[in-house]
Amino acid sequence: MQEPPHLRRLLIIWIALSVVATPLVVLLLAPGLPPGDASSEASGQVVDNTVLFGILTPIAAAIVVYFAYSLIVFRQRGPEPEEGVAIRGDNRVQLTWIVATSAVVLFAAVYGTIRLLDNGSGGGQGSSPIAKPSGDPLQVQVIAQQWAWTFRWPTFGGVETARLELPVNRDVELHVTSLDAIHSFWAHDLGVKADANPGVDNIAYVRPTETGSFDFRCAELCGLWHGHMFDTGQVVSDAAFLAWIRGQQRVFAPATRNLPKYKTEYNPAPHRRAG
Ligand SMILES: [Cu+2]
């Protein structure tokens, strides 16, 4: 009995499914996924995820089509068949596989590198970041400790605040550090995530593009009340931000006088205890 043209059938079903599914995923599903568009880093992550979804949808479709086709067409009917002939060394299959996988991986590597170099994409880059936005960003030190966040503002007299407010449409340079255990600063709405390690100045960039509130939390299990390390910050207009930070400078002036001098990292308690 003549075998039907399985490969051609598979190709036709796969192409048809990909042509329908890929635009649906890229245009409808991917743009609505987190983290949204509250900062240029968050929007950038949505764009990157959309690009990856565009590549992944035909690959996923190929797996689903082949799986379904095998279940239906190659199902065992009747008595147990003999073992099939081993297929090795088919040049066309090998070449297709190598070219297709190399193209996808190389594209992802080049695209990812270009996107990362733009602004760090919201990730912590350590003390000497290579991916910086241009211009003069606003510096904010994010200080983690068990179990609270505080924020220090070197360009506003080194005041330390319990709340986080950021001006809209301005690049912000976050200096994330810790006074004790290992924490992680995760402002998911803004697409920012950076480890907060004692003795480390971990720099991450963010540019909020919408006014409104955003949530942030600790993303590294840091002890008993780890779950308590969450709060809500605000993105406000430039004028509102200046009014707020100047108010904080006045309110916290007595405390600021007694704070250690602003540094990019502090000598945490375990370090001191260890001598
Ligand atoms: Cu923590």
Describe the structure.
The chain is built from six helices and ten strands, in the order αααββββββββββααα. The protein has helices spanning 6-29, 40-73, 91-119, 238-251, 253-258, 269-273; strands at residues 138-145, 148-153, 159-161, 165-167, 172-178, 183-187, 192-196, 202-206, 212-218, 230-236. A hairpin with a 4-residue loop joins strand 6 and strand 7 (192-196). Helix 1 runs antiparallel to helix 2. The longest helix has 34 residues, at 40-73. The chain is elongated and about 90 Å long. The model has no long low-confidence stretch (mean pLDDT 92). The structure holds copper (II) ion. Copper (II) ion (CU) binds at residues 144, 183, 218, 220, 222, 226, 229.
Descriptive tags:
single chain, about 280 residues, alpha+beta, five-stranded mixed β-sheet, 6 helices, 10 strands, about 20% strand, binds copper (II) ion
Quick synopsis:
By secondary structure, the protein is an alpha+beta fold. Helices cover 41% and strands 20% of the residues.
Oligomer: single chain
Largest sheet: 5 strands, mixed
How helix-rich are the residues, as a percent range? 40-55%
Tell me what portion of residues adopts beta-strand conformation: 15-25%
Specify the structural class: alpha+beta
Average pLDDT works out at 92
**Count, helices:** 6
Number of separate strands: 10
Low-confidence runs (pLDDT<50, min 5 residues)?
none
The shape, in one word, is elongated
For the termini, the CA-CA separation is: 83 Å
**Chemical compounds bound to the protein:** copper (II) ion
Break the fold down into its secondary structure elements and pairings.
Blueprint: H1 6-29, H2 40-73, H3 91-119, E1 138-145, E2 148-153, E3 159-161, E4 165-167, E5 172-178, E6 183-187, E7 192-196, E8 202-206, E9 212-218, E10 230-236, H4 238-251, H5 253-258, H6 269-273
Parallel strand pairs: 1-5, 4-10
Antiparallel strand pairs: 1-2, 2-3, 5-8, 6-7, 6-9, 9-10
Helix pairs in contact: 1-2, 2-3
The structure holds copper (II) ion.
Residues 144, 183, 218, 220, 222, 226, 229 line the site of copper (II) ion.
